[in-house]
Amino acid sequence: MSRGKSRKLMPHALLSYAHYLHKLGVPTARVVEYLDLDISKPALTKLIKLYNEVDNCVDAEQSKQIHMSLFPTWLDPWQKVQEQPADWDYVGFFPFGEWVAK
């Protein structure tokens, strides 16, 4: 089931760095400003939380599922924040669904 919502994601290296800054105690608003990200504070907070779950998840299958949702094949590793392309849909409830090409 698609929620019809366009998602913003970021490449692994950038999200990893944002997560690192957040762990150091840098406020989310400051991370957005410092990295010049085109994303809302709540959206970045959610991505950081999910990234943290990938790192700390004891269930390997669940960790893999979240990772695949955060870093789909359409995500360009050289761009910053990216909005899902029109020809891709997320089916299911994020992050436990899957990316499918239309």
Strand count: 4
Ends apart, CA distance between termini: 13 Å
Task: Give the H and E element order.
Answer: EHHHHEEE
The major β-sheet equals: 2 strands, antiparallel
> What percent of residues are in strands?
5-15%
Helix content: 40-55%
- The number of helices is 4
Secondary-structure-based class equals alpha+beta
Anisotropy-based shape: globular
- Count of discrete structural domains: 1
Radius of gyration: 13 Å
Provide the low-confidence segments as ranges.
none
Average pLDDT across residues? Answer: 92
**Physical arrangement of strands within the biggest beta sheet:** 1-2
Structure in words:
By secondary structure, the protein is α+β, with helices and mostly antiparallel strands. It has one domain (8-101). 45% of the residues lie in helices and 12% in strands. It has 4 helices and 4 strands. It has helices spanning 12-23, 28-34, 41-56, 60-70, and strands at 8-9, 82-83, 88-91, 98-101. The strands form 2 sheets. It has a two-stranded antiparallel sheet with strand order 1-2. β3 and β4 form a beta hairpin. The longest helix has 16 residues, at 41-56. The radius of gyration is 13 Å and the shape is globular.
Which key features would you list for this structure?
4 helices; 102 residues; alpha+beta
